[in-house]
Write a structure and sequence with these properties.
Keywords: Repeat
Domain RCC1-like: 2-331
Structural class: alpha+beta
Shape: globular
Protein name: RCC1-like domain-containing protein
Oligomer: single chain
Low-confidence stretches: 33-39, 257-261
Distance between the termini: 45 Å
Pfam families: WD40_RLD
InterPro entries: RCC1-like_dom (IPR058923), RCC1/BLIP-II (IPR009091), Reg_chr_condens (IPR000408), Ub_ligase/GEF_domain (IPR051210)
Number of helices: 6
Strand order of the largest sheet: 1-2-3-4
């Protein structure tokens, strides 16, 4: 209804192509330049969405916005309002410079923009605009802005080089390091905006209208990623340390969704460990949902999640809330896939190596990929069934010995053997699964009979 989908129309339950980006022109080009470069259309290189706003950055560094667009208004107090834009509109305040990072809150936008035409090292300047009722723009007051304005803490003359930005519902978080100290990895997290749930990490629930550092984070770490949920914040260091703070111990959970007797908002950073006294090895990125957090670790081969679990957002096969990180049930690579991945990486690193263009090799590769895809799909299907029946993710050790290295087998006999070898807990679980499945099937059959009866009544009214 606010145009955040990029077209003027009703809600959409399926992806709709934004045709405007098929013919996107550089907003900083003259008419003559557009004519000579008609075949050089821009590409979208970065996207973000928040609240009722969507934004995109093209490969030339131009920023486009649609949905709730802050505008000047003479009819509202302070001359500020939101106007729905149903197609991408360029933010012309940054023409001639490159937008590098952008984040959206419920009603505000924060961007990192190069000081010149291209991004060079530590020259990023921080701008913000939109609603500022809680000081989430970091401009030292609570006045809303309809146009981008520089946050002085991170202007061109600032001693701080800002490199990451994230927005919660009504607060903002930034990562910055001292300029000219490239050999020293230390960095700092700065936050501002609404603080009533501790989401700023300042040790209080006070609101901050200007950027303030999160002082209880160690000053000897290099922070590589930051993100905000609605009312919580999380950061991760290059060493694998993760800290969270904000609503319900930094989980983002609402007070009514408490999962244990110990509760309360975290007004200062809490250290999160993947296991007892174990860090997240080789972290890549942390990201927050409304009330849950996910981190990518082990160079992208592992995902951990914690927080609100409804609708299965934690990916661990359950819908319950989780106070501590739990592994996302991501299919592990087979040895064949790992070997193929290693082979591909070596080919990319050595650009002088001859490419194999034999038709037979290409066909064999396609068949191998198809088999790997089928195997991955089958493994996921088995995991779903195994979790439904036994209440835990499928592991290789769960395969009966009689089935290992076996080409053929008797289904009925193997099932009988599994029942005989099952302990009491497994048998009780199987009985519960059978009852629930039988009840669900009966319920669905009854619903279909009712629908068929209703349909028959409407198709054969009395008197016909």
């Amino acid at each position: 209804m606010d145009g955040q989908l990029g077209f003027d129309g009703e809600h959409s339950a399926k992806p709709c192509l934004m045709e405007q980006f098929l013919k996107l022109d550089n907003p900083d080009s003259s008419t003559d330049e557009l004519k000579t470069k008609s075949n050089m259309l821009n590409k979208v290189s970065y996207i973000k969405a928040g609240g009722m706003t969507s934004v995109a950055v093209d490969d030339l560094g131009a920023l486009w916005i649609w949905g709730n667009n802050p505008q000047q208004s003479s009819s509202t107090e302070g001359g500020f309002s939101f106007i729905s834009s149903f197609t991408p509109t360029p933010v012309r305040d940054f023409l001639g410079r490159a937008v590098v990072k952008v984040a959206c809150g419920n009603e505000h936008v924060v961007v990192l923009v190069s000081g010149g035409e291209v991004h060079k090292g530590e020259d990023l300047i921080c701008y913000s605009w939109g609603s500022n009722k809680h000081g989430q723009l970091g401009l030292g007051d609570r006045e809303s802005r309809h146009r981008p304005e520089i946050i002085n803490t991170f202007n061109q003359d600032s001693p701080w080089a800002v490199y990451e930005v994230a927005c919660g519902a009504f607060h903002t978080a930034l990562l910055a390091r001292k300029k000219g100290a490239n050999d020293i990895p230390e960095s700092m997290c700065w936050t501002f905006g609404l603080g009533e749930n501790g989401q700023l990490g300042h040790g209080t629930t006070h609101t901050a209208v200007s950027p303030e550092p999160v002082k209880e984070l160690p000053d000897t770490v290099h922070l590589i990623s930051v993100d905000c949920g609605l009312f919580h914040t999380s950061v991760v260091s290059s060493a694998g340390d993760v800290w969270s703070w904000g609503m319900e111990r930094g989980l983002g959970l609402c007070p009514g969704a408490r999962v244990s007797a110990v509760s309360g908002d975290a007004i200062s950073p809490l250290l999160i460990l993947c296991e007892e006294n174990v860090k997240f090895q080789n972290p890549v990125q942390v990201t927050c949902g409304a009330a849950h957090t996910v981190i990518v670790a082990n160079d992208g081969h592992q995902l951990w999640a914690w927080g609100r679990g409804r609708s299965g957002v934690l990916g661990n096969g359950k819908t319950t809330d989780c106070l501590t990180p739990t592994l996302v049930s991501w299919p592990e690579l087979t040895e064949d896939v790992k070997q193929e991945e290693t082979k591909t990486n070596k080919e990319e690193d050595n650009s002088t190596e001859e490419k194999k263009d034999s038709q037979e090799v290409a066909e064999a590769d396609e068949k191998l990929k198809a088999l790997q895809l089928r195997l991955s799909t089958m493994e996921q299907y088995v995991s779903v069934l195994h979790h439904s029946i036994f209440g835990k993710p499928f592991e290789e050790k769960d395969i009966p010995t009689s089935l290992q290295n076996s080409g053929t087998f008797d289904v009925a006999k193997e099932w009988e053997n599994m029942l005989k070898s099952a302990d009491r807990a497994k048998l009780v679980r199987l009985e519960m699964f059978y009852r629930n499945m039988l009840s669900g099937v009966k319920d669905q059959l009854m619903k279909r009979r009712v629908m068929e009866a209703i349909k028959e009544c409407f198709s054969n009214p009395k008197g016909n």
